[in-house]
Amino acid sequence: MVEELVVAGVAALTGGIAYAMAAARVVRQYERGVVLRLGRLRREVRAPGFTMIIPIVDRMHKVNMQIVTMPVPAQEGITRDNVTVRVDAVVYFRVVDAANAIVEVEDYRFAVSQMAQTSLRSIIGKSDLDDLLSNREKLNQGLELMIDSPAVGWGVQIDRVEIKDVSLPEAMKRSMARQAEADRERRARVINADAELQASKKLAEAAGEMSKQPAALQLRLLQTVVAVAAEKNSTLVLPFPVELLRFLERAQQPGAQPGAVGQPAPQQQVAGGGTAHEPAPIAPGAPDAGQAPIAPGAPDAGQAPLAPEVPDAGQAPITPEGEVQEQRGAPSADGPSGHPAAPSTTSTPAA
After folding, report:
1. Maximum CA extent, the chain
2. Is-above-0.70 flag for pTM?
3. What does each C-alpha distance from 15 to 9, 12, 20, 321 come to in angstroms?
4. How far apart are CA 127 and CA 135, in angstroms?
5. How far apart are CA 68 and CA 156, in angstroms?
6. Each residue of 8-67: pLDDT tens digit?
7. Distance between CA 293 and CA 296 in Å, rounded?
């Protein structure tokens, strides 16, 4: 009898342990337990901790209540301004009603993913390329509303949707790069022209101040030399001093030329130890300063007069204009008409 009681107690204890092991469940802190008893939903959602269910009769599903980060595959679409782009995004959502997440939708993760892809394509078709590139906050809000509307009935709440990347065709990238380069070039030219205008005004004011003091130009020249020398260049270009240019300008005046009329001519060393005065330049038509004027046709003072009819022994007769008469042939006694023929001559300039 005692042995039967012991056997029955051991059997009961073993059955109790087996039942407890089959009925015991542990729900983690970030989970909720949804119990279906004979296929019917039990509205009581099991809280985190240790809980018991009826084996074979009850079936419990654990639902993760953490925020889920789901990447949306890149979707290719055409924007409102007819540009083909590829856009991918990321969705942050979490389950707020565990019972609806189990009962209302078969797989809430797959449902949210498909809804996000569809909404992303719709947003691409309704937006311009500039909005996709610069106005993403507004697009994110619109995309969040489009996904969250059907997800509310699934017990899912969309926390945030972010457009992650926008891929453009290579031709569009080059066009945008040229546009940006042209815009920057335009702004650079405007800034440069404005700087030139301001610099010209300041330079005009500086020139007006320097014109009052001629020494300021020389000081500015020295400052320029110092600035050039600071670069440690091997070649230094030094312009002419301003005073030298002014000296040359005064020297070019007619009253300041040496040897002019009214001023003594410079002396020149000659052979024999003496000095001779170099004749000053004579203006066209003016007589020489060292001799008296010679009348037309009068012989030179330093030589004997030559008769015009007596030519030199070794050369042709010289005409008053300085040309040499060269006979081409001997004169004949009579010409074709019976008169003495004139000798044939050609005029060549005298050497």
Report:
1. 200
2. no
3. 10, 5, 8, 160
4. 10
5. 11
6. 888 888 888 888 888 888 899 999 999 998 888 888 888 899 888 888 888 899 999 999
7. 9
DSSP labels for 273-335? S-EEEPPPPPPTTPPPTTSPPPPTTPPPTTS----TTS--TTSPPBPTTSEEEEE-SPPPSS-
Instruction: Report CA-CA distances (Å) from 292 to 84, 130, 183, 295.
Output: 105, 99, 83, 9
51 and 27 in contact (C-beta within 8 Å)? yes
Q: Which helix (DSSP H) or strand (DSSP E) does residue 208 occupy?
A: helix 170-212
- If you count DSSP H runs as helices and E runs as strands, how many of each does the chain have, helices first? 8, 12
SS (H, E, C) 33-72: EEEEECCEEEEEEECCEEEECCCCCEEEEEEECCCEEEEE
Q: Could you tell me the CA-to-CA distances from 93 to 19, 68, 317 in Å, in that order? A: 38, 5, 128
Side chain identity at residue 309, one-letter code? E
* Of the candidates 62, 52, 69, 55, the residue with the CA atom closest to the CA atom of residue 28: 62
Which single residue is written with the structure tokens 């002014």?
246
CA distances, 4 to each of 9, 10, 12, 14 (Å): 8, 10, 12, 15
Query: Measured in Å, how far apart are the chain's first and last C-alpha atoms?
Result: 174
